[in-house]
Amino acid sequence: MKNSRVLLMITLVALTFAACSEKSKTEAEKAGDQIENTAKAIGNDFEETKDQFIAKAEKEIEEINEKIEKLDEKVEEGSDDVKKETKEALDNLKEEKEELNQELSELEDATKENWERLTASIEDGFDDLKRGYNSLLEDMKTG
Q1: pLDDT tens, N- to C-terminus, the chain (143 residues)
Q2: How open is the CA angle 135-119-42, to the nearest 5 degrees?
Q3: Is 94 helix (H, G, I), strand (E, B) or coil?
Q4: CB of 70 within 8 A of CB of 95?
Q5: Helix (H) or strand (E) run with residue 27 in it
Q6: Number of separate domains in the chain
């Protein structure tokens, strides 16, 4: 009889721990699911931000490319002196634009870890390209 009471107590304690353990396991699974869902949402936000930045940058590159093409046409219409003076600067602008295109293609594979560095570099590249274009345009007007 005493053995059956001990056995009953051990069984009850074991069942209590098992129930608590099962409840904790379920809560842990729920918490894990919430963490996973949050991580996915953050990942989706990052991808959306990345896609928006890339689309905007591609549009800017396209606009700059059109401006450079128009400038190239003006240079070709100009005198030989104008061509010689501006052709090198125009070629430099085209190289800068191509480097920017390359960086933009790298951005498509960007991770959260290198996102800030790449976007800052691209924004700086756009600023440099615009300054170069405006400077060349100004030189052509005064030259």
Answers
A1: 455 554 445 554 454 555 555 555 576 666 566 666 655 666 678 888 888 998 998 999 899 889 888 888 877 777 676 677 788 888 888 899 999 889 888 888 888 888 888 899 989 998 998 898 888 888 777 76
A2: 155
A3: helix
A4: no
A5: helix 2-77
A6: 1
Q: Which residues contact 98 (CB under 8 A, 6 or more apart)?
A: none
- For residue 103, the enclosing domain spans 50-143
Tell me the two tokens of residue 106. Answer: 């790298």
The reply to whether 112 falls in a domain is yes
Q: Is residue 80 part of a domain?
A: yes
Within-domain flag for 124: yes
Question: Does 54 fall in a domain?
Answer: yes
